[in-house]
Amino acid sequence: MDWMLKDLAESVPQTRHVVVLSSDGLRIAQHDTEPDTADRLAAACAGLQSLSRSISDVFPGSSRLLKMIVIEVDGGFFYLMAAGSGAYLAVAADEGVDAGLMGRRMRDLVARIGSHLTSPPRSTADGTAI
């Protein structure tokens, strides 16, 4: 998966971090990102997923599933996109990033390798899902 994450990072100028995470906020993979930074981003994404479920309640008939979040802050953008069942793709980029290009590249990556980004539910030693 590393080369695919590298391709995303290198094909969109101004990309800082690319992280794949599970729905419970655990880092699965990263490209050119320190493990501590990747872990911090992954953990923060668990909170964003919870927030998106709460917000989805205002949309009647919503499945409550997060599709994509974009956050713009002074200095850059943060993107979080569903990337298969139980997995997400997170990207941080500088403020000069082409936001449209980033969204398209992320969608292309998820479409290409979505099944590889799926994180199955964790289970206990006796096989019970947690």
Task: Give a verbal description of the structure.
With 130 residues, the protein is an alpha+beta fold. The chain contains 3 helices and 5 strands; from the N terminus they run αββαβββα. It has a 5-stranded antiparallel beta sheet, with helices on both faces. Strand 1 and strand 2 form a beta hairpin. Helix 1 runs antiparallel to helix 3. The longest helix is centred in the middle third of the chain and has 22 residues. The mean pLDDT is 88.
Which H/E pattern describes the elements? HEEHEEEH
- Individual helix count: 3
> SS-based structural class?
alpha+beta
Distance between the termini: 26 Å
Biggest sheet, strands in spatial order?
2-1-5-4-3
**Rg, Å, rounded:** 15 Å
User: What's the story with the biggest beta sheet?
Assistant: 5 strands, antiparallel
- As a percent range, the share of helical residues equals 25-40%
Number of strands: 5
**Strand-residue proportion:** 25-35%
Give the low-confidence spans: none
Average pLDDT rating: 88
Shape: globular
